[in-house]
Amino acid sequence: MTTQVTKGIKISVKTSFEGTFFKNYKMHFAFGYTITIENQGRDSVQLTSRHWKIYDALKELEMLDGEGVIGKKPVIKPGESHTYNSGCLLASPIGAMRGHYQMVNFTTTEKFRVHIPTFKFSAPFALN
């Protein structure tokens, strides 16, 4: 598990290999990840957007931006957490992701970034 704390917000990431499949005559490697966002601070916060950098050993860097996570903009009170599952398709059996969440502190109205640590993907057969 990979973890990082930014401004009292702890991000924990666990990855899994989901399998391979062919689409349009190309092999794809499916990976899943579970992220837990834990508020270790004193104020309630809301996740408003996300930014991802997706690294694939056989493709160029891909960047994705979007509102919330999995269609939600969770409010996380002090001592509480929000967990969600998502996934990623890669052209190779090895890759990684990293990024940040944009958050707002409800007490101070401050907007701030929470860093998502780099987490790696590797199919079990790809590494000896």
From TrEMBL:
A Pfam short name: DUF525
InterPro entries documented for this protein: ApaG_domain, ApaG_sf
ApaG domain residues: 3-128
NCBIfam families on file: PRK05461.1
Protein name (record): Co2+/Mg2+ efflux protein ApaG
Gene from which this protein is expressed: apaG
